[in-house]
Design goal:
The chain is an alpha+beta fold and about 190 residues long. It is built from 3 helices and 12 strands. The chain has a 5-stranded mixed beta barrel. The chain has a 4-stranded mixed β-sheet with strand order 9-10-12-11, covered by helices on one side. A 3-stranded antiparallel β-sheet has the order 1-2-3, with no helix packed on it.
Length: about 190
């Protein structure tokens, strides 16, 4: 019989694999740095592995991050268009921290979270409202505000904390999130 035992502390993660009550593997990871999840980087593509539909991207952390760029295993013209090339600079966001010898898992679907909304650059006009906001009139009001405020190339998700907020509050937060996105875009082209 196989069993996995885990001990998780704020600064230490221990995992043991037991087979028939005897330890066969033991893994320890010390948390020396804070999580990178959510951080956005302008990274440089180091290598591309077409069979995996993945690229390894240097984001300056010492280990190249893993970026899956494919959507399906089927070969298509679209897959080749989405394939990054070694040397390309890409804006990526960390989805999952590095573990052991593996680098962070990255995505090109960037989002910036605020108190009341999350900005989705390059999601042209997609507007969502938290499911926890159940009042239909309030959902429509927030949808209309976001339709008016959002640039056409961006999408947004109104968070639960957005309920009851004024148009001015949404506008102020949206401007702050758009400034973050602009600074990332400028870094990409340096």
């Amino acid at each position: 019989m196989k069993r996995v035992l885990m001990d998780i502390d704020t600064n230490l993660f221990r995992l043991a694999l037991l087979e028939n009550g005897e330890p066969v593997e033991f893994y320890v990871e010390r948390k020396q740095t804070e999580s990178l999840v959510g951080n956005v980087y302008a990274g440089r593509v180091e290598t591309v592995v077409p069979n995996l539909q993945a690229a390894f991207v240097d984001i300056g952390t010492g280990k190249n991050g893993y970026l899956y760029y494919g959507n399906t295993r089927a070969a298509s013209g679209a897959e080749k268009e989405n394939r990054p090339k070694a040397g390309d600079t890409l804006v990526v966001q960390v989805e999952k921290d590095a573990v052991g010898t593996k680098g962070a898992v990255l995505t090109r679907n960037i989002s910036f979270a605020g108190k009341f909304l999350a900005l989705l650059p390059n999601e042209g006009g997609e507007i969502g409202v938290s499911r926890k906001i159940t009042n239909e009139a309030e959902r429509r009001r927030m949808q209309e505000i976001m339709e008016e405020l959002l640039p056409s190339d961006c999408g947004a998700i109104v968070r639960t904390n957005g309920a009851g907020r004024s148009k001015e509050e949404f506008q102020k937060e949206l401007e702050s999130l758009l400034q973050k996105w602009q600074s990332v875009k400028q870094a990409e082209y340096r």
